[in-house]
Design a protein that fits this description.
The protein has 188 residues and is mainly beta. It has one domain (14-171): Roll (Pnp Oxidase, Chain A). Helix content is 10%, strand content 33%. The protein is built from 3 helices and 12 strands. The strands form 3 sheets. A 7-stranded antiparallel β-sheet has the order 3-2-6-9-10-5-4. It is globular. Bound molecules: flavin mononucleotide. Belongs to the flavoredoxin family. Its cofactor is FMN. This is Flavoredoxin. Residues 10-172 form the Flavin reductase like domain.
């Protein structure tokens, strides 16, 4: 039997990503974001929703650029820490021993320890209430070569412990169940 709950957001699991921002080293910052996702394939577009009181908010609004860095199990501690400490008080790159790297298109730094970094340029900012939604074009992707399968050339993120966020807790990825379209594939 189902119960009624007051309205809330319960779409889980989600990735917990690290958003890096800033256009000069003194401004560089990182915040953890779970309210993120894909909103269009072509042109490739993503969103992140950020509360206006975050230190990163003004930085991203000013520069209109940021990087979505996917996270792994090895990055779990830093992912949590960057989500509970503010760049107002800490240099998060230094504190978490994360390495800022150069992007190809945007001036914001990427995080070298991340397997895949999506360079984003803000197209629109929509005030929704608690959060503002930054709608962005993905203008470049920097993918770690070590995650490429040498035989197939495929990017093997699933094999390399992506971090999963479910209602306040972090998990690893579970077992593979099937592939896109397998439900209608003819049995050999
Ligand atoms: C798992 C996790 C997910 C979070 N998701 C968001 C989010 O989607 N949007 C947001 O504004 N803050 C989110 N936060 C909180 C910010 O990351 C946090 O307030 C951070 O300290 C802000 O850093 P800053 O002040 O340096 O920008 C999240 C925190 C955690 C731990």
């Amino acid at each position: 039997m189902k119960q009624d709950w007051k309205p809330g957001t319960m779409i889980y699991p989600l990735p917990a990503v690290l958003i890096s921002c800033g256009s000069s080293e003194s401004e560089y910052n990182i915040l953890t974001v779970a309210w993120t996702g894909t909103i269009c394939s072509d042109p490739p577009m993503c969103y992140v929703s950020i509360r206006p009181n975050r230190h990163s908010y003004a930085i991203i609004k000013r520069n209109r650029e940021f990087v979505i860095n996917l996270t792994t199990k090895d990055m779990a501690f830093a992912t949590d820490w960057c989500g509970v400490r503010s760049g107002k008080d800490y240099n998060k790159f230094a504190e978490m021993k994360l390495t800022p790297g150069k992007c190809s298109v945007v001036s914001a730094p990427l995080i070298e320890e991340s397997p895949l970094c999506m360079e984003c340029r803000v197209k629109e900012i929509i005030s929704l209430g608690s959060h503002d939604m930054f709608i962005a074009d993905v203008v470049n992707i920097r993918a770690e070569e070590n995650y490429l399968n040498r035989e197939t050339g495929k990017f093997e993120l699933a094999e390399n412990n992506p971090l999963v966020y479910v209602h306040g807790n972090y998990y690893g990825l579970g077992d593979r169940i099937g592939k896109f379209g397998w439900s209608v594939e003819k049995k050999k």
